[in-house]
Amino acid sequence: MSDTIESLARRVKTLEDERDIARLIASYGPLVDSGDPDAVAALWAVDGGYDTGDWQMSSRDDVAAMVRSEEHRGLIARGCCHFFGPPAVTVDGDEAVAICQSMLLVRRESRGFAVARAGVHLIRLQRAGHGWEIVSRTARQLDGSGLAVALIEEGLAR
Fold first, then answer.
1. Residue 121: beta bridge partners?
2. In percent, how much of the chain has pLDDT > 90?
3. Contact present, 32 and 44 (Cβ < 8 Å)
4. What angle do CA 76, 100, 81 make, to 5 degrees?
5. d(CA 124, CA 51)
6. pLDDT tens for residues 28-81?
7. pLDDT in the model for residue 110
8. Which of 39, 65, 108, 140 is surrounded by the fewest CB atoms within 10 Å?
9. What is the Cα Rg of the chain in Å?
10. Which SUPFAM superfamilies does the record match to this protein (predicted)?
11. pLDDT one-digit tens code per residue, 80-96
12. Per-residue pLDDT, 158
């Protein structure tokens, strides 16, 4: 009986970790679209990295600077939505890997939105005292180059 309870406790902990990580990833879009640099940066470890392919960030401060940038502020002023699909999460103790797809929708002049980007994100996380945080995040466009497919393969190989 004791083994069953321990097994159930481990399984519940894994489910809670997966839920917490999915919630962290899902919060990025609303936070970045609201232009809250400190809340977005708090998703990362202090020295966590974010590689968009066009932009290399290597700290919370760099992530906050991206949210404060003229380019990002312009997206918000125009109307945008960073939308993320559900992540496939693999937890291994105090470390985890997640893979998900995203779209950046940008408002057109008068009606509707257009897809500006579609991509894949490979996210490595670690458990910290306050919960999970991003150690590294690599994003690549689904542009046919194969770079996004390589991230998918890496993220699902666990």
1. 100, 139
2. 92
3. no
4. 15
5. 12
6. 999 999 999 999 999 999 999 999 999 999 999 999 999 999 999 999 999 999
7. 77
8. 108
9. 17
10. NTF2-like
11. 999 999 999 999 999 99
12. 63
For 23, counting Cβ atoms within 10 Å of its Cβ (0-12 exposed, 13-18 middle, 19+ buried), the class is exposed
Largest CA distance in the chain: 64
CB 60 within 8 A of CB 46: yes
| Domains of the chain by start residue, with CATH | 2-156 (3.10.450.50)
**What tokens does 30 get?**
């609303």
CA 132 – CA 31 distance, rounded (Å): 17
Output 29-34 pairs: Cβ under 8 A, ≥24 positions apart: 29/81, 29/82, 29/83, 29/84, 29/102, 32/67, 32/72, 32/82, 33/76, 33/80, 33/81, 33/82, 34/76
d(CA 121, CA 112): 25
The answer to whether 124 and 47 have CB atoms below 8 angstroms apart is no
Q: Give the residue, 111 or 40, on which the prediction is more confident.
A: 40
Contact 52, 59 (CB under 8 A): no
* pTM greater than the 0.90 cutoff: yes
